[in-house]
Amino acid sequence: MADESGQTQEQPVTDRRDEQDEPVVRKQRRAVFRIPLASLITLPLLLFCITPLAFTAPGMQALYLLPVALTVWVVRVRTVVTPEGMWAYTLTSSRHIPWDELSSLAVTKKARIRAVVTGASGEETVSLPHARLHHVPVLSLLSNGRVPDPSGALSTDGGTDSDSDSEAKDVARPTSPA
Q: 50 Cβ partners below 8 Å, 6+ apart?
């Protein structure tokens, strides 16, 4: 700041965080597996195409329920994964799966993931909508390692261990006859 003589004076700088106890805001980590909401852009086109059919015969206006059902399905069906657990939302129900209750993950032929849950009634399989095999590293990251990552995408060493490289080079070299 400049005073009347034109010289600048330094103001003491205080850290306001020391004076106040500001709450630390932690960003909640979560992953949502769903059909992109941008797919709802196609609904006006669907409505436009249904309109000629809807008025061809009495009762065909029920075809307008198709875009409504499609909208509800796109918005509702999803899997949400947080450090506390997973939530599987289907069209008619939802299910919370804490990490402690998760026994394992089962993979179907089409690379879909199902959660095997242990409970009082024994083991039960819960479908995780829109979660696929390539999402397992994300599940491993958010579960803090409770779900193992078989792909090794999250390994900290990254395969650059000098001992393993030298062993690999030794194995790859042909041995000379002695």
A: 63, 64, 66, 67
pTM (2 d.p.): 0.66
Token code pair at residue 75: 């918005």
pLDDT digit string, tens, across residues 82-130: 999 999 999 999 999 999 999 999 999 999 999 999 877 888 999 999 9
